[in-house]
Amino acid sequence: MASIRIAALALAALALAGNAHAEERDFCPDRPGKGSPPCVLGKGRFQVEVSGVDATLDKSDGVSTHDIAYGGLELRLGLASTVEGQLSWTPHERVRTKDQGVVSTVSGAGDLSLALRWSLRNPAGDGLSVAVQPFVVAPTGADGIGGDAWQGGVIVPVSIPLNDDWSLSLSPELDARPDADGSGRHAGYVLASGVGRMVGPVNLGAELWVDVDDDPSGRVTQTSFDLTAAWPPASLKDVQFDASAYVGLNRRTPDLQLVVGVAHRF
Fold it and tell me: Percent of the chain scored above 70 by pLDDT?
C-alpha cells in the first residue's frame, strides 16, 4: 500500500537523522489526551506511542456510528537538543454506520501526519515550558477514512506548573482545512486545556477540548470533556500505559470516545 511505503520511507529518514549520541531527559510521552505537551525528546532518542484500540461511539438524529481504529502509531525522534520529528499513522480503521436500519461499513488505513516540535523554553518540560509544532497531513488514507486533500497547521503547546502537585497544559492550534465542497481552504481553531497531577503511581488528568471548523458552508463547533490516566510502571523503565475517556458536550461531538495505549522510549 502507498501509505505503508510512505511511512517506511519517512521512518527511515528519521532513523538516519538520529544516529548521534542520545541525550538523557525525563520520560515525557504525548499520550494520553488530545493536547500536545511542549517537551522534546533528547537528541538521538527514539519513542514509539501506540493506541491499541481507539473507539468512537455516537448516536444522533437516528444515525448510529461506531468508529474503531487499531494500532494508531506515533513515532518520535530527537533531532536536536530543542527539536524532534514526528510521524503519525493509523494502519486500520473501521467505520460502521446504521441509518434507519440500513448498515454501511468502510475500512482501511488513515492519513499520514508529519510534524516538527521546536522547544522555545525548557525542552525537558520542566517549569514553564513552551514549544511550537507545525504539522502537515497527507491524504494517503482509504476512501471514507482519510481526508481528500492536504491540510496542515501549527500547535503551540504550553505547560505551566501551578504548585508541587498540579500542572496546567494548553494547546492552542490553528489549521488550514479543505472546504467541504473542495473549492478552497478555511481556518480551523482548536484548544485543549487541562490540569493534571500524580496520585500515587498514576498521573490523572482532566481536559476541556474545543474545535471550531469555519467552513464556508457553516461553522461547526465540537467540544468534549476528557479524563485521562497514565501509569509508568516502576519496574519498566521508559514505558507508560494509559487510558482515556472523551465525553461529547454538544450534538456535533461524538457521544463517547475510549482509548487505551502504550508509549515506550528507546
Answer: 92
